[in-house]
Design a protein that fits this description.
The chain is mainly alpha-helical and 168 residues long. It is built from nine helices and no strands.
Length: 168
């Protein structure tokens, strides 16, 4: 075999191994961005036992869990903790018709498709991917949420690992 062909084979092999190493290792695990208004899931979901789906109401019928609309916050905060500085800021934004630009915490690559709806319908609890949010004053990405993590979970739960399940 000529040196050029052998060199090409080695180059392709290195690129393929590099690609799959990147795809299996990519992760934002532990990512914890600052938010415009501090929000404690420990207080809301933990201490006050507010179910995830009260605020993230679209999770059962959408790919996305979505950030709750401000009126959901104001359902309680029009009467609860109204004298606290962050609730005053929240109320002012709500009354002015402005929204809050929350910073995304959980992220997967754009080429992957994840549907909260499918997983909730299969009976998965939010904490399986998001961790014990009811203990988090500041939410962070609990799991890797990379290809390896998803494939492992699919295998453990006897779900399809066909490429078209998550990539289209």
């Amino acid at each position: 075999m000529s040196r050029k062909v052998l060199g090409l084979i080695y180059t392709v092999a290195i690129l393929v191994v590099g690609y799959f190493t990147f795809m299996w290792s990519w992760s934002n695990q532990g990512y914890m961005p600052e938010q415009p208004i501090p929000f404690s899931h420990k207080i809301h979901a933990g201490d006050n036992h507010i179910p995830c789906m009260y605020c993230h109401s679209s999770v059962e019928r959408s790919r996305h869990a979505t950030v709750p609309a401000m009126n959901v916050c104001m359902n309680c905060h029009s009467v609860v903790a109204i004298d606290k500085p962050n609730i005053i800021k929240l109320t002012e934004l709500y009354n002015s018709g402005k929204g809050i630009q929350w910073n995304r915490v959980h992220s997967i690559p754009d080429h992957a498709i994840f549907s909260h709806q499918w997983h909730i319908r299969k009976g998965f609890d939010c904490s399986e991917c998001h961790g014990p949010v009811e203990t988090m004053d500041k939410v962070y990405q609990y799991r890797k949420l990379n290809m390896g993590d998803c494939v492992t979970c699919h295998r453990q739960n006897e779900a399809s690992i066909d490429c078209n399940t998550c990539h289209q």
